[in-house]
C-alpha cells in the first residue's frame, strides 16, 4: 500500500479496503425509479410472496440448486477464498444479514446472476473470474448482492422460467403471444433492475473507475491497454445521439430481446448516478432505511418512475425521443420531420430532366 493509503495494481491505483458501510440501508436507496416502483407495488400486494412460493413447485429451482452443487464449485474459505472474502465484505457493507451461497461455474462467457425463490443464489462464470481484476470483481459481487437485497432473484427466476415456457408453447395459437407479452414487460423491468444493481456494485466497491473498467472489459475483453474508459463513455453519447429515426427504431428492436442494457449505456448511466446528489447523500450516511420500507407509498413510487422516464425522454439526444418531446410541446411540421427522418428508406428523387422509365432506381440501404 502506498503512503497515500492506496494500493497499486498493474493497471492503475485503486482505493484501499477501508470502505464506508451502510447499516440498515434499504434497497430503495440505489434502485432505479422504474425498478423501485415495480418492487414497491409487488411488495404491497397481499399474498404475493405466497403465490410466488407456490410457483416453486413448477419452477426448476431445486433442480438448479442441485446442478450447481453437483457440477460447480461452491465459494468458501477453502475454495475461491478471495471471492468469499469479497462476498462477505459486500454483505457487510450493504448490511445483508445472511450471506447467500455463491458458485463458480465453468463457462468461458463472462457472466454472473442471482436467482432463487426461497433464497438467492449467486453464480459467476470462470470467464468472468478470469477477465476482471480484484476491484472490478468486487463491483460485480456487490452488483449481485444488490440483486439479493432488492429481491430481484425471485423475478429473475420467473423470467427464466417464462422465457423457457415461451419456447415450449410456441406451437400453440396465441399462447406464445400471451407469454411473450409478459416476458417483454419483465425484460423491461429487469433491464432497469440491472441499472439498480450496478449502483449497488458502486456502493460496495466505492471505485467508479473500477466499475467502468469492468463494464468495458465485458464489452471488449481483457485488452485494457488497448481501451480507454473516457472513449468508451463517448461511445455511449454517440449511441444516444447518433443516426435518424430509423436508427431509433432499430435501437428499440435490438434491445427488446435483451435482459440487460447495452454495456455502454450501463456505463453512462452509472457515471451519471455517481455524479449525482443522491449518490453523495448515501455516501454521507443519508439514505432510506429498511425499517421504513413498509411505509413507502406505491403512488409516490409510480410518480417518481413516471418522472424519471419523462426526464430521460426530455434529456435524450435520440431523434425519436426529440420527436416525442416536440410532439408533447406542440411543435409544428411534425409530419414533415417524420418523413425527413425516414428519407433513407426511400429512393432518391430522379434528377431534373430525367424521363420516366429511365434507369432503375436504386433502393436505399
- What composes the largest sheet? 4 strands, mixed
Task: Name the beta content range.
Answer: 5-15%
- With strands numbered from the N-terminus, the spatial order across the biggest sheet is 3-4-6-5
Low-confidence stretches: 1-16, 337-342, 344-348, 355-365
N to C succession of SSEs: EEHHHEHEEEHHHHHHHHHHHH
State Rg.
23 Å
How much helix, percentage-wise, in residues? 55-70%
The overall pLDDT, averaged over residues, is: 74
Secondary-structure topology with pairs:
Layout: E1 6-8, E2 13-15, H1 33-44, H2 48-55, H3 61-71, E3 73-74, H4 81-93, E4 102-105, E5 112-115, E6 121-125, H5 126-131, H6 134-150, H7 152-168, H8 175-205, H9 208-220, H10 229-241, H11 245-255, H12 263-274, H13 277-283, H14 298-315, H15 319-328, H16 334-341
Parallel strand pairs: 4-6
Antiparallel strand pairs: 1-2, 3-4, 5-6
Helix pairs in contact: 1-8, 1-14, 4-6, 6-8, 6-9, 7-8, 8-12, 9-12, 10-12, 15-16
